[in-house]
């Protein structure tokens, strides 16, 4: 199954031209083969120094999510940490969303931005935490106790999709056209 992820250990999980190309390729494979697409999310949105290279092409991610969903191909977002700005749209547009308790947060702008824009005090959890999205907004379909629980739940969601691939499983492999070599005779003893 195609999947893509933002890596928080690289540029704070921010999308860049290379991660965008990989995500778009995963979506292409999912669409062509009717495979569910899984996003493992912990993203700071766009990497600001390379924003001009990804801002307009990055919209294709959102287009792809809508095309996959419209074609009946499931999309799943497993949110492990912050998913801010453009990164918030991935779970926002996915068919199934799993968020990790006290770790996952989805919002367009965090508490400092809210403070600057409105003067209101807020915190990560009440603004966009997993508990709030699971109990109030409805963004989170599943609430995970920790990362392992989130992955377990993702496997369970995929197992219950009742989804059909574009092609059947491959048949049995053909026997080799030449007899196998004796591997011990052709390699030195160690």
In short:
This protein has 190 residues and is of the alpha/beta class. It has nine helices and six strands. Strand 3, helix 4 and strand 4 form a beta-alpha-beta unit.
Structure characteristics:
six-stranded parallel beta sheet, 2-enoyl-CoA Hydratase, Chain A, domain 1, 190 residues, 9 helices, alpha/beta
Topology:
Blueprint (H helix, E strand, L loop, with lengths): L2 E3 L11 H17 L3 E7 L7 H4 L4 H12 L4 E10 L4 H5 L2 E5 L4 E3 L3 H8 L5 H5 L1 H8 L4 E3 L2 H13 L23 H4 L4
Parallel strand pairs: 1-2, 2-3, 3-4, 3-5, 4-6
Helix pairs in contact: 1-3
Structural summary, described in words:
This protein is of the alpha/beta class and 190 residues long. The protein has a single domain, classed as 2-enoyl-CoA Hydratase, Chain A, domain 1, CATH 3.90.226.10. Helix content is 40%, strand content 16%. The chain has nine helices and six strands; from the N terminus they run βαβααβαββαααβαα. The chain has helices spanning 17-33, 51-54, 59-70, 89-93, 111-118, 124-128, 130-137, 147-159, 183-186, and strands at residues 3-5, 37-43, 75-84, 96-100, 105-107, 142-144. Strands 1, 2, 3, 4, 5 and 6 form a six-stranded parallel beta sheet that branches. Helix 4 (89-93) links the parallel strand 3 and strand 4 (96-100). The longest helix has 17 residues, at 17-33. The radius of gyration is 21 Å and the shape is globular.
Helix content: 40-55%
* Count of separate DSSP helical elements: 9
CATH class: Alpha Beta
Uncertain stretches of 5 or more adjacent residues: none
The ordered H/E elements are EHEHHEHEEHHHEHH
Name of the CATH superfamily: 2-enoyl-CoA Hydratase, Chain A, domain 1
Largest sheet: 6 strands, parallel
- Counting helices, strands and paired strands, the structural category is alpha/beta
Shape: globular
- Distance linking N and C termini: 39 Å
